Amino acid sequence: MKKKVLAILLSAAMVISMAACGGGGNDSGDSGSADSGAATEDAGDAADDAGSSEGGSKGYSFQMIVKSFQSTYWQAAIQGVEQAKAELGVEVEANGPANESDIADQVQMLDSAIEKKPDGIALAACDTKSVVDSLAKALEAGIPVVCFDTGVDEAPEGSVYATVATDNAAAGAVAAENIFPVIEEKIKAATTDAKVRIGEVNQDATALNIQQRGQGFIDKMIELCNGADKKVAVVGNEFYVNATEGAVAEAEAEVIIEVGVPAQTTVDLASTEAQKIMSKDDTIAIFGSNQTTAEGVVTANQTLNKLSTDPEKGIIGAGFDAGTPQKEAILNDQLIGSVTQSPLMMGYEAVVTLTKICDGEEVADIPMDGYWYSKDNMEDDNIAPNLYD
């Protein structure tokens, strides 16, 4: 199929002038894990920039709170952290809950990190509203925070110095843009009496990045269907139903987008949501909006055997992020492709940005690239480094 590459840019970055951090922990002698290709080259450039700061960057001690250590996505982010530690001579203590649904556990970890009075904190919030009070504590304590993977819209002013993240609305949209041409003829043939259904499984409705990504897919799919003169209804999870503009009542629609959200962020529960959608006779496509839910779609197919890259033979599936099960599903013609981010570079850039803050430099939000990949381009130089296992 036609190859598309998405260079995702964040909205206008806010540049903030920073005061230098206080002295932190000890120099690190750890050696980090590094990917090859573009990611490593970019990382080297960032390290050169940070290392050239006046006053040096040795001795800073940072806390990092990830969403969980459950998926290889976050393990890849930690690889980037380890690489930055080795190159910059800083200490980073990483922590995170067992599961991305363990919101209270993550807040407790963040509060504990603040109590340690580090030189800075890198945060990937499971639930953006839940961390607002903690960010206020960090601000009061004079501890700079860099968000990565997802921003915190309601953060107290001045508490978050920069955000390292993908434009998730655009990332969700690119999945819709690649699914739509494959199912276009089925959409054009749909009527109010013979509707077609497109599924989307999102891991939650609380994390800002997942909200934006899920909504980005829905909005773009509605736009594309409307362009084919078809009306769309959105059903399922209440958050996404209420957040969607431009949808119609189910009875009036030719196309239904059904959104499933598991009770907890696990592959098994995501698989259950996917099975509910894939078991319906009118389902023609399904999208898993992160690694866990994409693997849930693949797991559901082990029972149902309905996924295909041919719309005449089965349900068209697509995913997000990477991981061995998802990559194998693409190679085995179960998924048409996925959108990948660069978690390694997000982890790396978060540490580099904290180091620059402590060196007294100005920092800004950092846009990260994301790419559509299929079996045709998985080995490309700008794709392969981001396809972690």
Short description, anyone?
This protein has 11 helices and 13 strands.
What does this structure look like?
This protein has 389 residues and is of the alpha/beta class. It has two domains: 156 residues, Rossmann fold (3-Layer(aba) Sandwich); 173 residues, Rossmann fold, CATH 3.40.50.2300. The protein has eleven helices and 13 strands. The protein has a seven-stranded mixed beta sheet with strand order 7-8-6-9-10-11-13, with helices on both faces. It has a six-stranded parallel beta sheet with strand order 2-1-3-4-5-12, with helices on both faces. Helix 2 links the parallel strand 1 and strand 2. Helix 2 runs parallel beside helix 11. It is elongated. The protein starts with 37 loop residues before the first helix and ends in a 16-residue tail after the last strand. The N terminus is likely disordered.
